[in-house]
DNA sequence: AAATACAACAACCGCGCTCTT
DNA sequence: GAAGAGCGCGGTTGTTGTATT
C-alpha cells in the first residue's frame, strides 16, 4: 500500500504564491504561530495550499530576517568548506549562515557556485598547461562540465589529479561507489582550492583530505579507541553514511577537530563542550537536533572563526593522517 | 524586433525519520 | 510494538527574467 498523500492534490492550488496568500500566511503565523501542525494550517487560514507548501513558503521566503542573493565571498567560502566536509547537507550548511535558507544555498550552489568553481578550475587548468604542466589529451571535462576523478574501475587516473603516489588509496568497493560521483569530484576541486575561491598564500599546500588508506585507518582510531569509537558512530549517524565518502572523511574531520579544539570553535555545536557529539554517544540524527534552536547560538561564532576553521581544515590534518 | 538559449530562483515531489496513538 | 500522520530534507522541475543571435 502506498503512502497516503499529505493533502488532497485536486483541491490544492499549486504554483507561485500571490501577495494575498503571502500576507494571509504571514499574518496568521506572526499572530498565532504555526500551531505545530502545518497540514492543518492552510485550512485554518482558508488557503487552498498544501501544508508543506505553506511551510516551505514561510521558511524560505516569509520568515523574518531572510536574506536573498548577494552572497559574500566569505559566505561562498563557508559553503565550500562545509560542502567539503559534509556534502550536500544544505540544512546544516544553512544553519551556519544567518538569514540564509537551505533552498537558497542549494540553488546558489547549483546555479552559480559550482560553475564559479569549475570556472576557476578551468583557469588553473589552462595556467598549468601554459606552464608546461603536461596535460594529456582527453583530460577535458565531460559534457556536463565535470572533471573525471577516476575512471571506471579506478585503473587509470585523471590527467589532472595528482600522480598515483599522491593519490588516496581507495579500496575497490569504495571506488565502485564513488566513480563519477559528482560530490566527490566537486570536493576534489574544492580541496585543491583549499575550500575557497580566493587564492591564498599557501596555494601549493597539499590537501589534508587525503583519505587514510585501509592500513592507516585503524591506527588513527586505535590510538584513542575509547573516545573515537562513539565519536565516529555519532558522526556517521548524525550526518549519514554517505558522508563517509570514499575517505572516511567525516571521521578525519572528527579527528582533526578533536585535536584542534581551539580552531574548531565554529563547529562548537558539533564538538564543543556539551555539544551533540559529547552528549549523544552514537544515537543522534540530524533530525533530532533542532537546528533552528542551535543556530542562534552558533551564528556569532561562525564568521569570525571561519579563518580558524579553515586553517584547521586545510593545514593540520596532513601530519595527523599520514603520521 | 523576434526567436532562442541560458541563468536564476521558486516551488514541488518523494522519501526517511520522528512522534503520536 | 505497529501503524499512521506529520515534518524536514534533498533532489528535481517549472517558471520567469535576461542575454545573445
Molecular structure report:
Residues 9-62, 63-117 form the HTH myb-type domain. It is found in: Nucleus. Its main location: nucleus. The protein is an all-alpha fold. The protein has 2 domains: 10-62, Homeodomain-like (Arc Repressor Mutant, subunit A, Orthogonal Bundle); 73-129 and 147-322, no CATH class. 53% of the residues lie in helices and 0% in strands. The chain has 15 helices and no strands. The chain starts with 18 loop residues before the first helix and ends with a helix. Residues 133-180 and 199-323 have low confidence and may be disordered. The protein binds a DNA duplex (21 and 21 nucleotides) through α3 and α6.
Quick structural summary:
This protein has 15 helices and no strands.
Question: What descriptors fit this protein?
Answer:
single chain; 323 residues; mainly alpha; Arc Repressor Mutant, subunit A; DNA-binding; Homeodomain-like_sf; SANT/Myb; Myb_dom
List the helices and strands and how they pair.
Elements: H1 19-32, H2 41-45, H3 51-62, H4 73-86, H5 90-95, H6 102-130, H7 172-178, H8 182-192, H9 216-222, H10 225-239, H11 249-259, H12 268-271, H13 276-279, H14 291-315, H15 317-322
Helix pairs in contact: 4-8, 4-14, 10-11
The protein binds a DNA duplex (21 and 21 nucleotides) through helix 3 and helix 6.
Amino acid at each position: 500500500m502506498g503512502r497516503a498523500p499529505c493533502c488532497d492534490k485536486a483541491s490544492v492550488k499549486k504554483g507561485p504564491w500571490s501577495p494575498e496568500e503571502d500576507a494571509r500566511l504571514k499574518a496568521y503565523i506572526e499572530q498565532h504561530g504555526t500551531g505545530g501542525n502545518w497540514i492543518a494550517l492552510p485550512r485554518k487560514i482558508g488557503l487552498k495550499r498544501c501544508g508543506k507548501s505553506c511551510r516551505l513558503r514561510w521558511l524560505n521566503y516569509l520568515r523574518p530576517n531572510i536574506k536573498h542573493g548577494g552572497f559574500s565571498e566569505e559566505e561562498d567560502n563557508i559553503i565550500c568548506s562545509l560542502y567539503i566536509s559534509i556534502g550536500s547537507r544544505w540544512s546544516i550548511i544553512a544553519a551556519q549562515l544567518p538569514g540564509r535558507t537551505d533552498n537558497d544555498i542549494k540553488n546558489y550552489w547549483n546555479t552559480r557556485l559550482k560553475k564559479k568553481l569549475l570556472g576557476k578550475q578551468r583557469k588553473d587548468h589552462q595556467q598549468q598547461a601554459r606552464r608546461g604542466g603536461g596535460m594529456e589529451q582527453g583530460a577535458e571535462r565531460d559534457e556536463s562540465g565535470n572533471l573525471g576523478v577516476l575512471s571506471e574501475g579506478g585503473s587509470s587516473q585523471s590527467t589532472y589529479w595528482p600522480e598515483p603516489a599522491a593519490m588516496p588509496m581507495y579500496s575497490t568497493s569504495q571506488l565502485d561507489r564513488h566513480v563519477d560521483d559528482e560530490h566527490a569530484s566537486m570536493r576534489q576541486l574544492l580541496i585543491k582550492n583549499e575550500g575557497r575561491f580566493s587564492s591564498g598564500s599557501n596555494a601549493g599546500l597539499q590537501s589534508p583530505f587525503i583519505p587514510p588508506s585501509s592500513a592507516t585507518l585503524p591506527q588513527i582510531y586505535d590510538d584513542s579507541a575509547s573516545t573515537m569509537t562513539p565519536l565516529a558512530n555519532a558522526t556517521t549517524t548524525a550526518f549519514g553514511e554517505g558522508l563517509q565518502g570514499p575517505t572516511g572523511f567525516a571521521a578525519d574531520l572528527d579527528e582533526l577537530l578533536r585535536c584542534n579544539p581551539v580552531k574548531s570553535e565554529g563547529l562548537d555545536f558539533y564538538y564543543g563542550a556539551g555539544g551533540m557529539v559529547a552528549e549523544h554517544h552514537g544515537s543522534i540524527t540530524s533530525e533530532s537536533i533542532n537546528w533552528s534552536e542551535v543556530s542562534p547560538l552558533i551564528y556569532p561564532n561562525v564568521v569570525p572563526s571561519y579563518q580558524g576553521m579553515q586553517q584547521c581544515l586545510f593545514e593540520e590534518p596532513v601530519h595527523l593522517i599520514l603520521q
